[in-house]
Amino acid sequence: MTLLNTFDPKTTETVFARLEKLNYMSKPQWGKMNVAQMLAHLNVTYDLAYDRVQSPANFFVKLMLKLFVKPLVTNDKPYKKNSHTAPVFIITNERDFEKEKSIFIDNVKKTEADGVAFFEGKVSSSFGPMTAKEWSTQFYKHIDHHFTQFGV
Predict the structure, then answer these.
(1) Is the Cβ–Cβ distance between 145 and 78 less than 8 Å?
(2) Do 42 and 104 contact (CB within 8 A), yes or no?
(3) DSSP state for residue 88 in the 8-state scheme
(4) Per-residue pLDDT, 55
(5) What secondary structure letter does DSSP report for 2?
(6) Residue 129: beta bridge partners?
(7) Collapsing DSSP states into helix, strand and coil, what is residue 121?
(8) Looking only at Cα atoms, what is the longest distance across the chain?
(9) Domain ranges in the chain?
(10) From CA 75, how far away is CA 28, in angstroms rounded?
(11) Helix (H), strand (E) at residue 63
(12) Cα gap 146→17, rounded to integer Å
């Protein structure tokens, strides 16, 4: 899997070009979420990264996340279809596509603008300190997985 750098403006352009191929009627190729829920789900990643919400995990769970989940999230292998997700990421209520899309756009732009210096060594509430490369991988890999889910 080719992982793009989420701090690079060219990656932002690529992500937005794929995003523009989605609309409120887009159907998933697998999974339970509709397209608005998927965008809300992606936005949770940024909510956690920017400390808008905290990982509800206790010390033991955080240790397990750091040891076993972090390597899966930050490596270059694509996620498997229908992979399990943490409860904080589960979106079951209806969402507004245009609102979630706008929030997602703002999140991607902010991440690019904050850049490597902001994310280098930044502490994840789930995984502890992470490199900028790990943050970038986490963001892009998640986006790519769900955009692929919706055929874009």
Answers:
(1) yes
(2) yes
(3) G
(4) 76
(5) P
(6) 123
(7) coil
(8) 41
(9) 9-149
(10) 24
(11) helix 59-64
(12) 14
Locate 27 and state its tokens: 């159907």
Q: Is 37 exposed, middle or buried (0-12, 13-18, 19+ CB in 10 A)?
A: buried
State pTM to two decimals: 0.94
Q: Give the count of alpha carbons within 13 A of 47, CB side only.
A: 15
Cα separation of 117 and 80, whole Å? 31
CA–CA distance from 35 to each of 64, 86, 124, 129 (Å)?
A: 30, 19, 26, 31
Which tokens go with 46?
């940024």
Query: Among residues 40, 51, 44, 41, which one has the least CA distance to residue 118?
Result: 51
User: Element (H or E) spanning 124, and its range?
Assistant: strand 123-124
Give the tens place of pLDDT for each residue, 3-45: 999 999 999 999 999 999 999 999 999 999 999 999 999 999 9
Q: Which residue has the tokens 């998640």?
A: 142
Tokens of 142: 């998640």
Q: How far is residue 82's CA from residue 32's CA, in Å, rounded to a whole number? A: 9
> Can you read off the two tokens belonging to residue 61?
């769970």
Check: CB of residue 106 under 8 Å from CB of residue 114.
Answer: no
What the block records as the tokens of 20 is 């523009």
